[in-house]
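Translate structure to sequence.
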């Protein structure tokens, strides 16, 4: 927007325009970062590589993110938010233990497999992603699983087990199976989800005895 056009804009509208611009800039940086991390991996990528994918100045980057680590965490945070949304439509609607497990792993594994960029992101950033497991955004995904497991146990859908052990086991299965899944061609999300769900369900059934 030119200075002349800005002067013609009502003062009360200017804050909204600035907020939209800020949101647009942040979204552009996150999209660029996701592409760069998928192509190059966290270790090889730089802030300059990310900024080059946008029409923004390098200095603008630091108005939104402190460094490469911060924007990587934000990229993973966006992924976590989307997974949380999908899980609310998935395992929370299950009426049997088998359905709960199947929906849980299908949501996670199909989300990764449906987007080639997500597959590449998972392939090239294993170590960097592991370092974020204790970050608030990623922990929110774990807390939601604990809550959903607790509700399923209260309803009798799942047997009453140690919810924290079970959530840790399911999270570990999902993550480690996803790493093997994305290393294969073609990427078989359905097969991976079926295996993970059967494994988790067998463990639940064995633990209830």
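Result:
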């Amino acid at each position: 927007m030119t200075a002349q056009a800005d002067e013609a804009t009502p003062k009360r509208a200017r804050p909204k325009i600035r907020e939209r611009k800020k949101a647009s800039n942040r979204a552009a940086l996150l999209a660029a970062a996701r592409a760069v991390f998928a192509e190059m991996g966290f270790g090889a990528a730089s802030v300059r590589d990310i900024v080059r994918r946008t029409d923004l100045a390098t200095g603008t980057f630091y108005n939104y993110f402190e460094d490469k680590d911060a924007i990587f965490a934000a990229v993973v945070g966006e992924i976590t938010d989307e997974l949380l949304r999908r899980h609310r439509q998935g395992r929370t609607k299950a009426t049997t233990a088998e359905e709960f497990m199947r929906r849980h792993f299908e949501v996670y594994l199909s989300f990764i497999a449906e987007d080639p960029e997500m597959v590449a992101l998972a392939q090239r950033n294993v170590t960097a992603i592991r370092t974020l497991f204790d970050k608030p955004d990623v922990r929110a995904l774990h807390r939601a699983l604990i809550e959903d497991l607790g509700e399923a146990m209260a309803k009798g859908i799942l047997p009453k087990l140690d919810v924290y052990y079970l959530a840790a086991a399911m999270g570990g299965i999902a993550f480690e199976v996803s790493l093997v899944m994305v290393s294969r061609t073609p990427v078989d999300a359905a097969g991976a989800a079926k295996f993970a769900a059967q494994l988790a369900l067998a463990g639940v059934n064995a633990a209830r005895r």
